[in-house]
Specification:
The protein is mainly beta. The chain has a domain at 57-145: Beta Barrel (OB fold (Dihydrolipoamide Acetyltransferase, E2P)), CATH 2.40.50. The chain has helices spanning 8-21, 52-56, and strands at residues 40-41, 60-70, 78-83, 89-94, 109-113, 119-121, 124-126, 129-130, 132-137, 140-145. Strands 4-3-2-5-8 form a five-stranded antiparallel β-sheet, with no helix packed on it. It has a three-stranded antiparallel β-sheet with strand order 1-9-10, with no helix packed on it. Strands 6-7 form a two-stranded antiparallel sheet. Strand 3 and strand 4 (89-94) form a beta hairpin. The longest helix has 14 residues, at 8-21.
């Protein structure tokens, strides 16, 4: 981490020295993944506008995945146990099992809407909704659960 109070030249030298002495993988061996978005189809934007007051009533929070398991007798649902910063575990069900295995999500930091009324799914109350990005590539639907920097604490509010 570079100090904020160094003059620009000194900061660049400090960063360069730290990078040279680091045991990290050399930059030239790390190839940036090229992503082809030419076949991606995005849903049209909503034409209806939402006033700021309505939007601001949605409580978006960073949540940490404490546990995740497949819901018995369901092909799509995963049951998440989440730390939402309140001190009590939150349960959210999400139909993302076709895209993710439960064990790969444990420990991740995600984004959830936490003030939705509970909704019973497969006999289990789901208390919120995890945020995902959805698009189509040709005929195939793709879903990516929104995961953020693990340094963001559970319960951090998004604005």
């Amino acid at each position: 981490m570079k100090p904020l109070d160094l003059p620009k030249k000194d900061a660049q030298e400090t960063v360069a020295k730290a990078a040279a002495s680091s045991t990290a993988v050399p930059q030239e061996s790390v190839a940036e993944e090229k992503i082809d978005f030419s076949s991606v189809v995005i849903e049209p934007l909503f034409r209806d506008q939402v006033d700021f007051e309505t939007f601001s009533r949605s409580d978006f929070r960073a949540v940490k995945v404490l546990a995740c398991k497949a819901v018995p007798k369901s092909k799509k649902l995963l049951q998440f146990t989440l730390d939402d910063g309140s001190g009590e575990d939150r349960t959210i069900l999400s139909g993302i099992h076709p895209y993710y295995e439960p064990e790969e999500l444990i420990g991740k930091t995600c984004i959830a809407i936490t003030n939705l009324p509970p909704r019973k799914m497969m006999g289990i109350d789901s208390c919120g909704m995890l945020i995902s990005a959805v698009h189509h590539e040709g005929e195939e639907e793709k879903l990516h659960l929104l995961m953020v920097d693990p340094h963001i604490p559970a319960g951090a509010k998004l604005y």
